[in-house]
């Protein structure tokens, strides 16, 4: 089998990760054409059996077996011998490829045909948290590439013929991947990049080869010796050679401090010999001169001396931070003894992310009906979507603590930090941010997968602070009487944020559509999925590019990703798909659309206010119901159309089911149950009760 891309995967003692790795290549890439060569490096666990099962079921998989364990470098070399693709990607058996990555990579390879494609790489820590990616801004070819840190091996997709022509292979020993990456860039003449993360590495997982230092890591000296001895480096100018050797020495000294203490002196001598052979006669800086002179004791003394300021500075910085924090808390305690400002309200939304949701709607309504009440918003650094003229305070500032201590009203759709004191004279309004489909509050312990960050005792203390809890309908009121039991008053008013939808006119819709350049004849489909607690990163269940293609030239798709997933994922590439994940107003997106596709997101309850076609696409409904817990059977009581597969979804549009009488009937029943109070005056009802004290 031949094609564009071969993935080569060395496999040794990764049985707990291997299936996830193989699935990421073969199952989550939208039918990308790929060959996978998996090399069993005489792994002593069940890896070989897992590979046999996969190869028997999938002709794209080629299994290579080594007679004894030779290490990842030689295993990759063996895989390279069996590769047939135009390009080769080395993917370790305990790492994985981001869903959708291969389609993006294939498109870039076909369009640019580079020697090397460098992609972003993310890192998944031992606790399964994924860091933001390393983005390749600009990658240099030739000897100058050796003056910068090399891209991680998982971020390199290399033209196979380049490797064959140059005779590039992985060398035996530790750090073979780093030197191979340098050699590839040294040899290449054209390099392209993909900014988003395509590859996720697990460098510190338990059992990883480099998770703990070993004497074998001293082999890095020989690896760099081979690299510095390349003729391209020798032929480079003196300034480039100086920078290359300095970079190599820095890298090796970094390794030196990770190897066992008994191996350090010998490794240091190897670094010294390398620097004398390839470096300038007088290296830059005292540190490198000590290395070149093999002055190990003096080098250690210098390092110890230079570490003293850092050791002193860290506690000093910590002491200053703690002192400032104590001073601010003291200031807060003082402000708590000062009089309440009867005409001040503090607003917050989504843990200080910005100006949004029900608090924003209450703020705007209060400006009309209770203008005596001044509003100030808490918005963290980098917070978005604050309109001009809206007063803000930064969390942790004096103004922040002063406002929290003295405001008569505290309005939030999430929670304030635990240190926030609710004074007896203050009024705390919890607006929430969605009608609940999933299990919430004090019911959550029944579903362990939902308990990340959950603190029942903290929730109990928060509930004691709430004077008002806003609900959108009877369904929510009944649930939250058990899930969020408060001693205050439940305001069953509808959601203030939906007033804009309830009062929307054709002119509002036309204005929203014009923002996205939508023609009058085009159908706009808004896709707004929620997050899944069991997925640490964005794992799409719907291919929006394929959807746009299937629905035809008169359909535009707006993709609204959940804000929890901002570290991994690919923007759509279809010309009729627009990524609106960072658009400031979900209400405006709803107005611009003709149809909503969602899954378990509470946006379904808001969108139903518009009485427009609504589709639930939930291939993992059974999983969500079992893992997260739900308050009603969405599959039976949805608001129009329910699809479990992509084929069902497309057919529902093509057949007219989405806009048919059956769907309209389902939507009517859904609206009667969940939207009966959404008449455009929910914000007014809240303001009149909370700020004006009206009870009628």
Automatic annotation (TrEMBL):
Organism field: Actinoplanes palleronii
Domain Glycosyltransferase 2-like: 6-134
Localisation per UniProt entry: Cell membrane
Record's bilayer topology term: Peripheral membrane protein
InterPro entries, sorted: Glycerophosphate_synth, Glyco_trans_2-like, Nucleotide-diphossugar_trans, TagF_C, TagF_N, Teichoic_Acid_Biosynth
Pfam families per UniProt: Glycos_transf_2, Glyphos_transf
UniProt keyword annotations, A-Z: Cell membrane, Membrane, Teichoic acid biosynthesis, Transferase
PANTHER family per record: TEICHOIC ACID GLYCEROL-PHOSPHATE PRIMASE, TEICHOIC ACID GLYCEROL-PHOSPHATE TRANSFERASE
Phylogenetic classification of the source organism: Bacteria, Bacillati, Actinomycetota, Actinomycetes, Micromonosporales
Protein name: Glycosyl transferase
Family classification: Belongs to the CDP-glycerol glycerophosphotransferase family.
A GO MF term: transferase activity
């Amino acid at each position: 089998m031949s094609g564009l891309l071969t993935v080569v995967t060395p496999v040794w003692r990764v049985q707990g990760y291997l299936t996830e790795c193989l699935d990421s290549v073969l199952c989550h890439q939208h039918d990308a054409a790929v060959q996978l060569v998996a090399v069993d490096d005489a792994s002593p666990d069940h890896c070989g059996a897992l590979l046999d099962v996969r190869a028997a079921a999938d002709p794209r998989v080629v299994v290579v077996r080594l007679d004894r364990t030779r290490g990842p470098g030689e295993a990759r070399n063996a895989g390279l011998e069996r590769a047939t693709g135009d390009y080769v990607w080395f993917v370790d058996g305990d790492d994985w490829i981001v869903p959708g990555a291969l389609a993006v990579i294939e498109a870039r390879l076909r369009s640019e045909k580079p020697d090397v494609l460098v992609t972003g790489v993310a890192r998944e820590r031992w606790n399964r948290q994924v860091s933001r990616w390393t983005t390749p801004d600009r990658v240099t070819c030739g000897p100058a590439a050796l003056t910068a840190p090399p891209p991680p091996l998982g971020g390199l997709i290399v033209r196979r013929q380049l490797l064959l022509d140059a005779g590039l292979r992985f060398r035996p020993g530790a750090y073979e991947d780093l030197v191979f990456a340098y050699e590839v860039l040294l040899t290449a003449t054209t390099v392209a990049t993909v900014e988003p993360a395509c590859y996720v590495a697990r460098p510190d997982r338990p059992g990883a080869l480099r998770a703990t230092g070993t004497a074998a890591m001293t082999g890095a000296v020989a690896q760099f010796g081979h690299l510095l001895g390349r003729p391209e480096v020798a032929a480079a100018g003196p300034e480039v050679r100086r920078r290359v050797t300095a970079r190599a020495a820095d890298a090796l000294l970094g390794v030196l401090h990770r190897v066992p203490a008994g191996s350090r002196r010998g490794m240091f001598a190897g670094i010294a010999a390398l620097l004398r052979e390839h470096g300038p006669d007088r290296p830059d800086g005292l540190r490198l001169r000590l290395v070149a002179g093999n002055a190990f004791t003096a080098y250690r003394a210098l390092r110890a001396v230079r570490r003293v300021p850092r050791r002193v500075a860290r506690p000093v910085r910590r002491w200053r931070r703690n002192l400032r924090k104590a001073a601010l808390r003291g200031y807060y305690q003082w402000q708590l003894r000062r009089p309440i400002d009867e005409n001040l309200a503090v607003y917050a939304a989504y843990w200080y992310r910005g100006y949004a949701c029900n608090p924003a709607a209450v703020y705007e309504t209060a400006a009309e009906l209770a203008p005596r009440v001044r509003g100030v918003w808490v918005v963290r650094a980098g917070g978005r979507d604050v309109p001009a003229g809206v007063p803000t305070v930064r969390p942790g500032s004096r103004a922040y603590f002063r406002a929290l201590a003295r405001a008569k009203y505290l309005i939030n759709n999430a929670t304030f930090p635990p240190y926030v004191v609710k004074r007896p004279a203050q009024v705390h309004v919890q607006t929430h941010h969605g009608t609940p489909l999933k299990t919430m509050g004090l019911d959550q312990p029944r579903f362990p997968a939902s308990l990340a960050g959950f603190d029942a005792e903290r929730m109990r203390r928060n509930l004691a602070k709430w004077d008002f809890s806003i609900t959108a309908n009877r369904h929510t009121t009944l649930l939250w009487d058990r899930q969020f039991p408060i001693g205050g008053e439940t305001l069953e008013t509808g959601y203030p944020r939906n007033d804009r939808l309830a009062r929307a006119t054709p002119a509002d819709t036309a204005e929203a559509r014009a923002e996205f350049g939508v023609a009058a004849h085009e159908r706009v489909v808004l896709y707004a999925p929620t997050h899944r607690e069991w997925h640490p990163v964005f794992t799409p269940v719907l291919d929006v590019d394929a959807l746009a293609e299937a629905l035809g030239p008169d359909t535009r798709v707006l993709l609204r990703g959940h804000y929890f997933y901002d570290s991994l994922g690919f923007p759509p590439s279809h010309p009729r798909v627009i990524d609106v994940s960072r658009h400031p107003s979900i209400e405006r997106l709803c107005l611009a659309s003709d149809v909503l596709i969602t899954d378990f997101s509470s946006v379904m309850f808001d969108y139903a206010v518009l009485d427009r076609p609504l589709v639930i696409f939930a291939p993992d409904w059974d999983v969500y119901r079992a893992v997260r817990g739900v308050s009603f059977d969405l599959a039976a009581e949805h608001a129009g159309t329910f699809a479990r597969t992509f084929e069902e979804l497309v057919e529902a549009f093509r057949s007219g089911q989405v806009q048919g009488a059956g769907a309209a009937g389902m939507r009517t029943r859904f609206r009667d149950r969940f939207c009966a109070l959404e008449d455009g005056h929910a914000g007014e009802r809240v303001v009149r009760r909370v700020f004006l004290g009206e009870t009628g």
